[in-house]
Design a protein that fits this description.
alpha/beta; Rossmann fold; 15 strands; 22% strand; globular; binds guanosine-5'-triphosphate; binds magnesium ion; binds zinc ion
Amino acid sequence: MALEANFCRVQLDQPGPGGVEQLLCVRRTRLGKTGQQICVGDRVRVEGIDWPEGRGAVAALEPRSSLLERPAVANCSRVVVAVALEQPQLDPLQLTRFLLTAERTGVAVDVVLTKADLLPVAEQERWRDRLIAWGYPTHLVSSRSGAGVEALRHHLTQPGIAVLCGPSGVGKSSLLNALVPELALRVSAVSGRLQRGRHTTRHVELFPLAPGALLADSPGFNRPDLPADPVALAALFPEIRARLSEASCRFKNCLHQGDPGCAVGAEWDRHPLYLNCLDAALKSAAREPKPQTAGLKQRGSRQEPLLDQRLRSESRRRRRQSDPDEP
Ligand SMILES: Nc1nc2c(ncn2[C@@H]2O[C@H](COP(=O)(O)OP(=O)(O)OP(=O)(O)O)[C@@H](O)[C@H]2O)c(=O)[nH]1
Ligand SMILES: [Mg+2]
Ligand SMILES: [Zn+2]
């Protein structure tokens, strides 16, 4: 399933009459009573098929095995988070936010470090070793020189859907072009002092890497959301999972801020990044209380005054106008 302006393209399990392999279906944004939203990767049932025209209508959505929230992709079996080593410079906090979104799917997560041609080998390897220590299989690639591309293709040639996501301008589409030269996807140069990308890719789209192995290119964005429940954050860090599999914290509701009695401690690379994300998640939970966090009493969770509803939606509207990253 792929989405286009007002239609979705449905890939059939078996060719229909006349060898039709894909159907163009009217896109209803929400389906049935449940109001579920269709996304790329969804398995759907189609009705009212006009075979000669290759058209139909999506009637129902099959249950999903996984869901990546942003970019929205259903049923992926792997998330590949791409960040550049340079242009734009690698930002560990931003990378962590992407990894947290990827972790929420429950599927395998890889890191791809792009533009390796822009850094000396020793520095490339320092980054790679650092990310391996975080708990992620990490690949160094350069679409420009071709370094690492073949090894990555080999790694990704497995049945299922892999999603390539990451900030704008890191070279996701360039990498897809290197992996599948026939594609010739549009890419464009990063701009400005901050070397920000230009949001060149506009839609999520699936491309066949090998029979049965699909890779999705996706539009870059710069600031993935954190989970709504701050308590859910810890389980999304492989380093915390590893420590908790060996020992337990003294308090059951421990938020792992490195206090005495915490089995996770503070002696790990991403500890400050974890604290940063935890603080942001606690603040936003306090702003918009959710049932599961409403009764939460934790150190460091400052209760913020609730903004007037109108003010809140107004400020959200303004943020959206000034920041293309706001959904
Ligand atoms: N030096 C170098 N530049 C690269 C490499 N890969 C991509 N670039 C450049 O980086 C810029 C952005 O590349 P894109 O492929 O459009 O990046 P993207 O991640 O798809 O960006 P969005 O579609 O906006 O999310 C282009 O100018 C590319 O030529 C690389 O391996 N080395
Ligand atoms: Mg792109
Ligand atoms: Zn703890």
